[in-house]
Amino acid sequence: MTRKNSPAPAAAAVAPAATDAPPARRRRAARSVAWRPVLAALAASASLSIAPAGAAEPPPAGPLLRVDAQAQREVTDDIAVAVFFVERDGPEPSALQAAVNPVLQASLAELKRDPALQVRSGRYVTQPRYGREGRIEGWRVRGELIAESSDVSAVSKATSKLAGKMNVGSIGFRLSDEQRARAERELTGEAAAQFQEKARAAARALGYGDIELVEANLSSSGNPGVPMMRAAMSKDAMGAEAAPVPLEPGRSQVSVGFNGSFKLLRR
């Protein structure tokens, strides 16, 4: 009996080969395979970077010490200052101004003849005078000139030049900007040394071996000299041929300070 060979199953003939997959599916598969090494590397680096975070923490900050220190000295005032004024009282302010202004102009011209003097205008005030019932009974006009110089004799002579014209409101001394800046520069080093030494001494007393600067602030100040003559000297008291006023400079205090904080260290 003759046996015929059975035909291959239909499914085997129909199943597509891998190379017969659509192009879109092949591209997605290729991209997936290409990214696998990159993703693996990222996972490894992430695990390496995260692991030490819990193992090593920064040491706690030490306690802070606040410190302030100051260095100061007295410096001789080197600028003499004189304030002159003219004042008139009367019923009409315009008439008073007409009387005061020429005196100011003439006195200003007189003082400016001396090149050693620095002259400038001071206050110029027109104000009413009130009676007992609060009513205006008159007016007062006052004008000032200010003369100053590092040449003390020039200011002293100015008082005699204006005798009979203007009154002396005050005479005093001040410290020049140049001398103040020079003193502050010298004091800055002294104040800084005191600032650091004070911090080190406090650290040793508290049982710490060293310090580390965290913050520092610098400040400076100065007290001006006191005027020698506070009360006004009238032109009548000075006289027409008044002698120069004897002057002697005072002293101003200049100070420089540091304040800030240090970290206390055990080492």
Automatic annotation (TrEMBL):
Entry superkingdom: Bacteria
Residues covered by region (Disordered): 1-30
GO biological process terms, semicolon-separated: DNA damage response
InterPro entries listed in its UniProt record: 26kDa_periplasmic_antigen, SIMPL/DUF541
UniProt feature, compositional bias: Low complexity: 7-22
Signal peptide (from-to): none
PANTHER family linked to this entry: PERIPLASMIC IMMUNOGENIC PROTEIN, SLR1258 PROTEIN
Protein name as it appears in the record: Putative secreted protein
Organism: Quisquiliibacterium transsilvanicum
UniProt lineage: Bacteria, Pseudomonadati, Pseudomonadota, Betaproteobacteria, Burkholderiales
